[in-house]
Write a structure and sequence with these properties.
The complex is a heterotrimer of chains A (386), B (414) and C (286). Chain B has 414 residues and is an alpha/beta fold. Helix content of chain B is 42%, strand content 21%. In chain B, strands 7, 8, 9, 10, 11, 12, 13, 14 and 15 form a nine-stranded mixed sheet that branches. Chain B has a six-stranded mixed sheet with strand order 1-3-2-4-5-6, sandwiched between helices. In chain B, β9, α9 and β10 form a beta-alpha-beta unit. In chain C, strands 1-2 form a two-stranded antiparallel ribbon. Chain C is globular, with a radius of gyration of 19 Å. Classes of the chains: A mainly alpha (386), B alpha/beta (414), C mainly alpha (286). Chains in contact: A-B, A-C, B-C.
């Protein structure tokens, strides 16, 4: 079961009862958190919710659509700034959250149109999205002067905008949500986004998206306008990232050019890769694991957190390419097969030859398993460089 | 990134801390008391750490000395350090962590004005107290914020009077870092040039990571100013002083700055590149007073590092000692009691750079200012000193006695 | 007149910076199709090697050459340990080298500390009318052109260049012809790294030496090589001249941020108009 929850091999299948149970358990876990945890943990968790939405937006695009976009931080930042500027100008926070989503989507639509309808290749798309987020970072950083004002709000460049308005109760805009209330809203939205994306994969739209990952040309030959679907997925992910940005800005509270930065973009990759890119729960787990790990590293007196993170990234690319959760999910399968091997060994006469055979078999199995964990190792010898 | 003081200290200086905490505490009979917690949020890593490294050490030294002398109100002081990594988001994160999780009574920290502006709303939200130990552009009017550094009326006014009037630098060209410090400071610079009968030719802003100043230098050459004023900040901007000497040279054009030297830039540059740069400061190691010499000696002994300490190093001790004096006067370390004590305007400390008195109306500090000039020994010659300059610019706009709920940063209008 | 000379110098200067930072990448990405996101850190390592040698009392020119050799060697080690497992897996290469980039920044900061080290720029300046033009800037321009010519000649006219180009174009056939493919990859990667290290070393007297040095250049280097298209050298030259001119002109009349942003913006539009890059339609050349 764990395997099926985490590895989620057939995304287009309708989720079964145990998945709903899992989501319910997750929601219950979040709901009871403020009851028994201290204030600081609640604040930290609220911060992670925004980041988890950013991770989901990239995990969805990369893991299911096969589109590796480094630029999700761009829409994350746009969402954060969009929310802050509009909410400061109008005072309406709920509407501004919707605007943040729309703003992220609009940014994604413009950039996505150029790239996807320009049919630039996969790798150029990755680099272009990265360059896009770096342009935005440079641009926002350069708005320190008092001539850069939107409405009554100074963009403040390098400083960021520290006066991000806190979310208010939607039906009673005169009351600000307290820390627990904000936590609940964040948790609810995160669970809803997760649920929505997961269910989306079972629809026709979702199946075409997965088709894109498997084979874009074949999907196109089946009569789908792949560009439209790809753009659709890109825009949707932009909206999710925008929502995450708005939440993140509220939680720290600060809208800052660092939201667009290379370092943040690297974080997103880490979360998704470590958590498991072909799942949706993986990126969320990745955020909590990595962000917590970073904090822990800091308290251990490790001077350079990036040093450790870099090594982790390399190890994951080389060895655990599926990410942590799917690897954990695969363990039962490995265990089952191993028992079978032992049965076969024990059934044979106890001769040296038999033991020898068993060892060989075990070694072979191990190599095969490892080879599965290192994708491409089979193709490397066969295909070579192209 | 959070370390306790000793862990951090060992990692930071490689030297064994001269006063190990439990040992000192036991000798002073303090070990049993509930400690007063102090948070220190500075940039140990990243582009701004040239300002922070010595300040972190000097702050730790000041706390150790307080503990060795019997602590504060009979309680030991416990310092927690947080590395904000030159990234505003960490300032926000750690300010929250310090106040909410570690329940510190005061945060000392922030180098750039951006980091201060990030922490101020958080400190207000959780009702803490922020000591901002750094020179800045002035005008912050907030009870929960105490500035112990120089503001333009203290630092820039005498500097510009000297350079523009006395040295005849009538035509000035301004280069500034592209964030709130640079923008507001450049306005003050324009104002002071005009006040002294000079002419400001141009103002240019540079993001903190810019290292190529060639285009700017050619524009300077085209404009032919008498003097270039810099408010450049951070490790990357050091490149400007190098490129200026390589293509124009201070023999042809004067170079004065509001932020040079405090990041120990002169120890990175060659003697020629740092020679003759004119700055105004509240502390250099070369001050001819016994207090300054004593501070430098203690710092060297404490850290085992005999390099130049500089103004930002001294800010570390200044902040802690001023805060400690306020706690003593309040008889209580809680933020509100300390704020109350500060607002009475009686908090005054004799420090390495002279007498420091916190002005109760603005929470800014009155101090001595010195005009100094870089020399070929990679140090500074003191040219002129001004006794006890008050933070006039902020006093003109800010009155915390009348408006205790003010949170504004006032900006100069030109 | 002196204004014109100054403009020319500015354009030449930013052109040569584009060339220097992207020449190594042109070999590693343009030729070998290895997306090396740690390219900026190779630049940074070059700067550090040069600074260390120089501070140890070795002449600057010699330090620069040492730095190039050291980074070349380092590149070969990286290729053996990391890159060789990832040929043909573009995305994985990109992620692994990103990890390497973080690792190197962290490692160098741990060893040398985060402060800016420096090497004094030698040679002073020549006065042209009102302008003083730094001689070292002129040397930089010269170095860029000489390197370009040398790499081009090496690729185009020597048997080694032929072997390398052949191997990159069709590994199987060159293997059938008895060429040790793995060795060629390693050496080419080392060559590209050495070029990058050299660039870092030459730039350090101007920009200083600090661990995050590479980050400022990585985006520029990639867009130069990508916009250049499939002919690594000609593409890089043409993209560098285009971007160098834009950057030089915009930075001189406006600010350096405006210069950089214009370049990045032009690059994105260019990719929409010419998805295959500037040399996309050309069939011959290197």
């Amino acid at each position: 079961m764990a395997y099926r929850v985490f590895a989620m091999q057939q995304p287009s299948q309708r989720p079964r009862w145990w998945w709903w149970l899992f989501v319910a358990a997750l929601a219950a876990f979040f709901i009871t958190m403020p009851l028994h945890l201290e204030l600081f943990v609640i604040l930290e968790m609220s911060r992670f919710f925004g980041l988890a939405m950013l991770a989901l937006s990239m995990g969805f695009l990369w893991g299911f659509g096969g589109v590796l976009s480094f630029g999700q931080t761009a829409f994350f930042g746009l969402g954060g700034y969009g929310y802050t500027v509009l909410a400061l100008n109008t005072g309406a926070t709920t509407g501004s959250v919707f605007f943040a989503i729309a703003f992220g989507m609009a940014g994604a639509a413009v950039l996505g149109y150029f790239m996807i309808y320009g049919r630039i290749s996969e790798i150029y798309l990755s680099v272009t999205t990265l360059v896009f987020t770096l342009i935005l970072e440079k641009g926002v950083r350069a708005t320190s002067g008092d001539q850069y004002v939107i409405g009554t709000v100074r963009l403040n460049g390098q400083n960021g905008i520290p006066t991000v308005p806190q979310l208010k109760v939607p039906w009673n805009p005169s009351v600000e949500l307290d820390i627990n209330g904000f936590f609940y809203v964040g948790a609810t939205l995160l669970v809803l986004v997760y649920l929505g994306l997961r269910l989306l994969l079972t629809t026709q739209f979702g199946r075409v998206i997965v088709g894109l990952r498997e084979n874009e040309r074949r999907t196109e030959l089946l009569g789908y306008d792949t560009r439209r679907y790809k753009l659709g997925a890109f825009v949707l992910a932009g909206g999710v990232a925008g929502l995450g940005g708005a939440f993140y800005a509220m939680s720290i509270p600060l809208a800052h050019p660092e939201m667009f930065s290379l370092g943040r973009a690297a974080d997103v990759i880490m979360w998704v890769l470590v958590g498991g890119k072909s799942t949706l729960i993986g990126p969320i787990a990745g955020v909590f694991a990595i962000e917590h790990f970073k904090g822990w590293l800091g308290t251990q007196g490790v001077g350079q957190v990036t040093l450790v993170l870099g090594a982790v990234l390399i190890v994951f690319v080389l060895v655990f390419q599926q990410g942590l959760l799917p690897t954990v999910g695969m363990l039962p399968e490995v265990w089952r097969d191993r028992r079978q091997v032992w049965r076969r060994i024990l059934a044979l006469p106890r001769t040296v030859a038999a033991v020898d055979w068993g060892v060989d078999e075990l070694a072979l199995l191990l190599v095969r398993r490892l080879a599965r964990l290192i994708p491409g190792s089979a193709s490397r010898s066969g295909r070579g460089r192209t | 990134m959070r370390l306790n003081r000793r862990q951090f200290f060992r990692a930071a200086s490689g030297a064994l801390a001269f006063a190990s905490l439990p040992h000192v505490l036991k000798r002073a009979g303090l070990a049993a008391e509930e400690p007063i917690r102090v948070g220190n949020i500075l940039d140990k890593t990243g582009i701004l750490n040239i300002y922070s490294l010595k300040q972190i050490q000097a702050g730790a030294m000041a706390v150790d000395e307080i503990n060795a002398a019997g602590g504060l109100l009979g309680r030991p002081v416990e310092l927690s350090f947080y590395d904000s990594q030159s990234d505003g988001q960490f300032n926000s994160q750690y300010a929250t962590e310090a106040l909410v999780k570690d329940k510190v009574q005061v945060i000392h920290g922030g180098i750039t004005s951006s980091s201060r502006e990030v922490m101020r709303p958080i400190v207000n939200r959780f009702k803490g107290l922020l000591f901002y130990n750094s020179l800045y552009e002035g005008g912050v009017c907030d009870r929960r914020h105490v500035s112990t550094g120089m503001v333009p009326a203290q630092q820039l006014e005498p500097l510009f009077e000297y350079v523009v009037k006395e040295l005849g630098g009538k035509r000035g060209y301004i280069l500034a870092a592209d964030y709130n410090y640079g923008h507001i400071t450049s306005k003050w610079m324009q104002k002071f040039i005009r006040d002294n009968g000079g002419e400001d030719l141009a103002v240019e802003f540079f993001p903190l990571d810019v290292t190529n100043f060639q285009p700017a230098i050619s524009r300077i050459q085209a404009a032919k100013p008498d003097v270039v004023f810099s408010a450049l900040v951070g490790g990357a901007h050091i490149a400007f002083y190098r490129q200026f000497e390589a293509s124009i040279g201070k023999a042809k054009m004067m170079l004065a700055s509001g932020a040079y030297g405090v990041g120990l830039e002169h120890t990175q540059l060659s003697p020629e590149e740092g020679n003759d740069i004119i700055i105004a400061t509240s502390f250099v190691d070369d001050l001819p007073t016994p207090e300054a010499a004593d501070f430098v000696k203690r710092f060297h002994a404490y850290t085992g590092d005999t390099g130049y300490v500089g103004e930002y190093g001294e800010y570390g001790e200044r902040g802690i000692t001023i805060w400690a004096e306020a706690v003593r006067q309040a008889g209580d370390a809680s933020p509100d009691a300390v704020i109350e004590a500060l607002s009475r305007g009686k908090v005054s400390v004799a420090g390495a750079g002279g007498q420091y008195t916190v002005d109760g109306q603005t929470n800014h500090t009155t101090m001595d200012i010195h005009i100094v000039r870089g020399n070929m020994k990679r140090r500074f010659d003191v040219i002129r000193s001004f006794k006890q300059r008050p933070p006039l610019d902020t006093q003109l706009v800010c009155d915390l006695h009348a408006n205790p709920d003010d949170k504004t940063q006032y900006e100069v209008d030109i | 007149m002196d204004q014109v000379a100054n403009y020319l110098f500015q354009i030449g200067f930013s052109f040569s910076i584009f060339i220097l930072i992207s020449l190594g990448l042109a070999v590693i990405f343009g030729m070998m199709r290895v997306i090396n996101l740690a390219q900026g850190e190779f630049l940074m390592l070059g700067a550090y090697f040069c600074t260390i040698c120089n501070q140890a009392g070795i002449a600057l020119w010699l330090s620069i050459i040492f730095a190039a050799l050291a980074v070349g060697l380092f590149g070969m080690i990286v290729e053996r340990l990391l890159i060789q497992w990832l040929y043909g897996r573009v995305i994985d290469t990109l992620l692994a080298t990103w990890g390497l980039s973080l690792f190197l920044v962290g490692g160098v900061t741990t060893i040398f500390g985060p402060q800016t080290e420096s090497v004094a720029a030698p040679l002073g300046n020549v006065p042209v009318g009102d302008f003083g033009i730094p001689v070292y800037g002129l040397v930089l321009i010269a170095v860029a052109f000489v390197l370009l010519a040398a790499v081009y000649a090496f690729w185009r006219y020597t048997p080694y260049g032929l072997i390398v180009r052949g191997t990159m174009q069709n590994p199987k056939i060159s293997a059938a012809l008895g060429i040790n493919r793995s060795l060629v990859y390693m050496l080419t990667f080392g060559f590209g790294s050495a070029l990058t290290g050299l660039a870092g070393a030459v730039l350090t007297p101007i920009v200083g030496t600090y661990p995050t040095l590479g980050i400022a250049y990585i985006a520029k280097a990639f867009i130069t090589v990508i916009s250049g298209g499939h002919l690594p050298l000609l593409g890089t030259i043409s993209a560098a001249s285009l971007f160098g001119t834009i950057d030089g002109v915009v930075a001189t009349i406006s600010t350096s941020v405006a210069g950089e942003m214009t370049v990045l913006f032009v690059a994105i539009v260019l990719l929409r108009l010419l998805p295959l890059g500037i040399t996309g339609r050309l069939n011959r050349g290197v």
